[in-house]
């Protein structure tokens, strides 16, 4: 019996790990277009130099050997659900009995002219390293403008790390630009936005809310209200969209994301599960967050349900803890500070240390 885990980020790694804990006999094949898991939550700290690429990424081949799974480094380009086969760019056809789709999300630039071509990103480790190199190339003897576009969790964290990187370089100004009327719009309680706004403003970040980017050209951003901002570097931190592969697959979707049943099977399918960012999960009006915690929790439930199906047992329902209505997150702010947002309440003391502890503990599994 072969389980193929497609995508080895937080969700996929958890599926494979949990399957092996529960069964010594199963054949587990892990497939990813990358060779390393990327701990994206720490990417902003690449900019300030607090972490290295090696510290926040893990060798998937090595991880797979540890759990006696097979790892294939290849991109999946199609899935034949009739033949139960995954097709890769290198021409492999890999048979599965159960498939778990865990291919995450992609960055979106919302079709804004010039945005993709002229911006840096921290969504991938490669992108974060390139953004850091671009920062290092700037001539700080003149006035420098750095624009961070999108003030969700990642944008706020990037702004905080830029402040740390630019300490002592008074000529550099950071602009944190957000379309919505306040920063951190995904967090329903305003108290966190108010706290973070003050924290970053006190450290010199200029926060521009209610500001829509219309076009990006060489060295200039044009906003919808007609005003313009000169920039030296843009770091784009606004928005995610479904993985391109999903467009090809004839599966039930909502706004392009995969729809799953309460047991995390793709709707209408018995042997295909999906977990993590790629999934749109809503049950009894409660919608799951797309974050690390839920990707991992979904991974464990999907793995358990595969084992239960093999044994002919009743399946387990997935119940999200972090929801759109009540999100939970650590938000780093730079200066070794963070806030933990938990169901509307914010905790400050030890939040940064707790975030780093979670990161180090996670990365140990790749050691
Ligand atoms: C910069 C940044 C900061 C973040 N900070 C936080 C945070 O502080 N806290 C938090 O909870 N969440 C954070 N997130 C979100 C979090 O990283 C995601 O929710 C999480 O990674 C989802 O896990 P996943 O397994 O669904 O997807 P991913 O971890 O993205 O893994 C998907 C995997 O699928 C592979 N893949 C995709 N397509 C193919 C294909 N066709 N063939 C083969 N392989 C493929 C990819 O290479 C990747 O390894 C952050 C995200 C970003 C980008």
In terms of topology, how is this protein built?
Blueprint lengths: L1 E5 L3 H13 L4 E6 L3 E3 L5 H5 L8 E3 H7 L3 E4 L2 E5 L4 E4 L4 E3 L2 E4 L3 E3 L7 H4 L1 E2 L3 H13 L6 E6 L3 H13 L6 E6 L12 H13 L3 E3 L4 E5 L2 E4 L4 E3 L2 E4 L3 E3 L2 H4 L4 E2 L2 E3 L12 E3 L4 E2 L1 E2 L2 E2 L4 H20 L16 E7 L2 E6 L2 E3 L3 H13 L4
Parallel strand pairs: 1-2, 1-9, 2-5, 9-22, 11-18, 12-13, 12-18, 13-14, 21-23
Antiparallel strand pairs: 3-4, 6-7, 7-8, 10-19, 15-16, 16-17, 20-21, 24-25, 26-27, 27-28
- Note the beta-strand portion: 25-35%
Major beta sheet summary: 5 strands, parallel
Question: What is the rounded Rg?
Answer: 21 Å
What is the helix fraction of residues, given as a range? 25-40%
Mean pLDDT, rounded to whole units? 97
CATH architecture of the largest domain: 3-Layer(bba) Sandwich
Task: Tell me the structural class.
Answer: alpha/beta
Rough shape? Answer: globular
Count of folded domains? 2
CATH superfamily of the largest domain: FAD/NAD(P)-binding domain
CATH class category of the largest domain: Alpha Beta
